[in-house]
Amino acid sequence: MKKMYFIAIYPDQKIIDEVRVFKEDLALNFGNSKALKNDAHITLLPPFEREIELEEDIHIAFQKIDTIISPFEIILNGFGSFPNPKNPVLFVKPEESENLKQLYLNVKEKFSFGKHSFNPHVTVGYRDLTYENFLKAWEVYKDKIYKTKLLVDKITLLRHDGKWVPINQKKLSEE
């Protein structure tokens, strides 16, 4: 049996709740309820499929990720979008962070399959967001002010069991 897995950074509950307000606005006013299913996060490794029998290997690779990086802050500042007509995405934008790039490269070193570029973001609207509704939402969100600091002190491995469930965590540390 195959399962889906992914690796992400989750902010504290305060940020999850703040971002949820934006998601609820999109659900209520722009017909986008699917984004409500997931808590706010920054994806380090997009969902991938593996046989559940191989899960132990995933855990071993996850534990081998180099997390000898001091915990660091990312500034979330305003909103951005991927205006793809087939699959538009509205998100909270993190400011440029060398530490975040390094952490991503360390994850990619142990999970090197798949070609994907790294565009860190905290999704607010996607999936059942139509392009027409995306354009209306973007008018509201493009100049909206939202700024906060997210402390990155661990990474999380999740498995999809009807919903995304954390199955492992690894803390960042100086040594």
TrEMBL record:
InterPro entries: 2H_phosphoesterase_YjcG-like (IPR050580), Cyclic_Pdiesterase (IPR009097). The keyword Ligase applies. GO terms for molecular function: ligase activity. Keywords: Ligase. Pfam families: 2_5_RNA_ligase2 (PF13563). PANTHER family: PHOSPHOESTERASE SAOUHSC_00951-RELATED, PHOSPHOESTERASE YJCG-RELATED. This is 2'-5' RNA ligase. It comes from Chryseobacterium indoltheticum.
